[in-house]
Structure formats: structure tokens, C-alpha cells
Amino acid sequence: MCGRYTSTRGPEDLTRLFQVTDWNPAETLAPSWNVAPTDEVYAVLERTTRDGGDEVRRQLRVLRWGLVPSWAKDPKASSRMINARVETVHEKPAYRRAFARRRCLLPADGFYEWEPVKDDATGKTRKQPYFIHPADGQVMAMAGLYEYWRNPDITSDDDPDAWLTTCTILTTQATDAAGRVHPRMPLTLTPDHYDAWLDPHHHDTHDLRALLTQPADGRLDARPVSTAVNNVRNNGAHLLDAAT
């Protein structure tokens, strides 16, 4: 799975890297070295214009991590839907419509996974976090889905609180450095596949799944880091310090 990641690039960098045309400066997030479920995160997506025309605009949006299906009675289950397995995403009721129509990219510097380690002195098992990231330091464009949920307690569609937009990360079987730590890992896309993945008119699920790749083509570094990251309230670059 991918249950925690880092996202420290600012909107100026992200709009350039992903060729974004629409971004609202009011939607600006602080850098985070400990992105956790239900946090707000940056997402790159494409939407048609409101006038109903064929023009598609690429946007940088702020979404909440943890997908809430449109048919959900309430958003409480979102923390359990932070990942969608690529093997079944096109079939599962919670994800299949979003996979066909509402795909996004979630920029990241890297992600965390935990390995159970036995303490020889105490005999107890503890969780050692690892930071897994592209060896070349490039941005990870994690494959994601997004969904809209309408709050039934708010009568007006024009009220911004009437709508909640959430997202999830697609995962696959882990390999290379990530596989030595945890059996699952996020899927990513290369820049030459951004257009096809984000295109809201592209609905062929077989073709879409073929676009997905391992982060950095499997060229990943994994290093043990401070256990401070285990607490979601901790944040800052020191979380990437080598474990001692």
C-alpha cells in the first residue's frame, strides 16, 4: 500500500512540470514531509469547460486523500480508501466509474513503508520506516482517481461546502527496493503518458492500465529514516534523516 508520502514541491514547480493551465493561488498547500490519509493534497487533473464545450483544461487542484464514492451516505470511510489495487480497480463499485472518467496525478517526492524489525535487546518487534524515492530525485507522478461527493445536508449546489472532492492512489505488487520493505507500491506515469491518462474522453480501461508503470522504472532508493515519521503530527525535513 501507500499510506504516507512526501510532497514538498510548490505550485509554481508543479504547474511547470505538469503543463498546468489552470491554478487558483488561493489553493496553496504548505510543503509536507508526512502526508497522511484525509490530508489535503495536490492533484493534477483535466476537466471540460463549464460551458459544455469540448475544450479541456489541465488543472492543479487541492483534493482530500481518501476516496468517498458518490453514492456513499457519508464521508467517514474515506480513510480506508486511500489506495485502489490496479488488479481490480476497473471492477470494484467504489472505483470503476472514476477509473473510466476521473483520473488524476498526485505529485510526490517519495513514499514511506514500514518493515517489522525485532529488537534483539528486548525481543519486541518495532516498525522501522523507510523512505522510498526515485534514485534520480525526479518527481513521482502517482496514478490516482478522484471522485465528487454531494453533501445531502446542504441544499444549494452553489455552496462550496456542498461538494467534497477526494482521491485515491493506485497500487501494484512491489519490486526492487520497495519490494524488500513492503509487498505493495504506488503506480506512476511517465511524462509521455500524462496526456492519455488525464484525458477525460479516454475510457478504454485496457489501454489505461497499460499506461501505468513502476516508479522511476524500478530505479528506487530505500533508506531507513527517523521513527518520528510514525506520528502523523510530526512534519519537517528532519523526518528524512537517516535512522540512528
TrEMBL record:
Keywords: Covalent protein-DNA linkage, DNA damage, DNA-binding, Hydrolase, Lyase, Protease. The keyword DNA-binding applies. InterPro entries: SRAP, SRAP-like. It comes from the Bacteria. Its EC number is 3.4.-.-. Pfam families: SRAP (PF02586). It is an enzyme of class 3 (hydrolase). The keyword Ubl conjugation does not apply. Belongs to the SOS response-associated peptidase family. PANTHER family: ABASIC SITE PROCESSING PROTEIN HMCES, DC12-RELATED. This is Abasic site processing protein. It comes from Streptomyces exfoliatus (Streptomyces hydrogenans).
